[in-house]
Specification:
The protein is of the alpha+beta class. The protein has 2 helices and 4 strands, in the order βββαβα. The protein has one domain. 28% of the residues lie in helices and 30% in strands. Strand 1 and strand 2 form a beta hairpin. The model has no long low-confidence stretch (mean pLDDT 84).
């Protein structure tokens, strides 16, 4: 089990849907991927933060810290929503 890294959520664009992104968390323990699709808007920012908090609460005990690290895929381009950008840029702690 992981115990020395932060929780990593990868964000990449949803293919064929401009302005939409998919955020993914891979659980090695469960051999499963959890994902949420969000729009590049304030509501997308709220959804992404809620998803990250859910992942942190469910899987944070397997990590040394409860910190979330967002990783933007190179294909993601630039986000237009300041709120969504804030969520991605400012990883948060437990």
């Amino acid at each position: 089990m992981k115990d020395n890294r932060n929780i990593r959520i990868v964000v990449h664009p949803l293919q064929g849907s401009p302005g939409e992104y998919v955020a993914c968390y891979d659980s090695e323990f469960l051999q499963a991927e959890f994902r949420v699709t969000v729009k590049d808007s304030i509501f997308g920012a709220l959804a992404l933060q809620a998803f990250a908090e859910m992942v942190r609460k469910a899987f944070g005990k397997h990590y040394r810290t409860g910190q979330i690290d967002f990783e933007m895929s190179p294909q993601a381009g630039s986000l237009h929503s300041r709120a969504l950008l804030d969520v991605v840029e400012h990883a948060f702690c437990a």
